[in-house]
């Protein structure tokens, strides 16, 4: 008899812990607090299991822990949830245990519902100890109610049994509230942490944007001032050209940043990879006289994406390669075709340490004085939007190869 009371109550306790765990897992997966609907479903399930494993004191009087999920859901999620669960408990009690003494169950839960509803607002702001004390008191009152019914209806309860029947619900309540509080704290911590991270990213982005936009604009302003003072028309023209260049540069920076917000209109095209790469090399070659360029490119290979973004991505990787060879070196671009297309950009530059390789592509990671640490990240975002990926192999003082793997688009021209 005692064994069965103990087993049933401990099983009930296990169901409650599993329910709380399911709640925490839901938050972990979905990254948001479960809605009231989910809370009701989860609590109903736990309550059902508790009712199914009720311990029968005597005809019509049953002991279990179904009140604990009811308390927790009521206190943390408010009177609406509380009311629904009260109805659920009474229904489940009726369906699975029967109608014996159901009026007393209704009375018991209705009074508890009123008390919980009255205190649910204050409960959330209360300290942990107060919360615990409050739930323990209510749980104790309900247990006593239960046992008094048992007594009135002539249940044969030994003194040992009393100890179990009073003690286990109390301990279970304390532990459940502690776990619920722990989960609540974790949720709050997670929220403030991610807000903090977001703020940090925004302020770093803002700082680097203003840095990159301000520099060319300041030089434009300088040249425009010179134009005002300059009498020579030829020089005036040159200054105007230079200041226009600065404005152009600033515009480009802003356009680049739009990659992150993805606010450029999506225009998916078939991109001829060889053409794009040759165009890029022709553009950067005159600016990097100290680097010797070579390429092994394959005709008629296409990928799908935005041509402008694709050029931006390969351009960023090529720029890094050039910047890693201040004393000169070799830059080669190679296309390798298997079931996918791999574009390998190899330089004979400074290379990277293990730590740098790990941080490759991390926002704001840069080893350059004037670097923004956004180039690789932008390339990564673009490649991922094309369902591809980027990998890097690098050896310090030897050089680096960046592999960009993309899906080939079917060659329609080859028909
Ligand atoms: P930035 O060029 O502004 O520094 P990136 O995101 O383009 O920002 O690059 C981040 C960092 O990755 C660089 O500062 C550099 O340390 C490292 N890196 C990227 N490509 C290469 C490369 N080809 N060789 C050596 N280091 C590289
Ligand atoms: Mg760069």
TrEMBL record:
Its EC number is 2.7.13.3. One of its GO terms (molecular function) is phosphorelay sensor kinase activity. GO terms for biological process: cell wall organization. Keywords: ATP-binding, Cell membrane, Kinase, Membrane, Nucleotide-binding, Phosphoprotein, Transferase, Transmembrane, Transmembrane helix, Two-component regulatory system. It holds the Pfam family 5TM-5TMR_LYT. It is a multi-pass membrane protein. SUPFAM superfamilies: ATPase domain of HSP90 chaperone/DNA topoisomerase II/histidine kinase, Homodimeric domain of signal transducing histidine kinase. It is an enzyme of class 2 (transferase). The chain crosses the membrane at residues 9-27, 39-58, 70-95, 101-120, 132-151, 163-183. InterPro entries: HATPase_C_sf, HATPase_dom, His_kinase_dom, HisK_dim/P_dom, HisK_dim/P_sf, Sig_transdc_His_kin-like_C, Sig_transdc_His_kinase_LytS_TM. PANTHER family: C4-DICARBOXYLATE TRANSPORT SENSOR PROTEIN DCTB, SENSOR HISTIDINE KINASE. This is histidine kinase. The lineage of its organism: Bacteria, Bacillati, Bacillota, Bacilli, Bacillales.
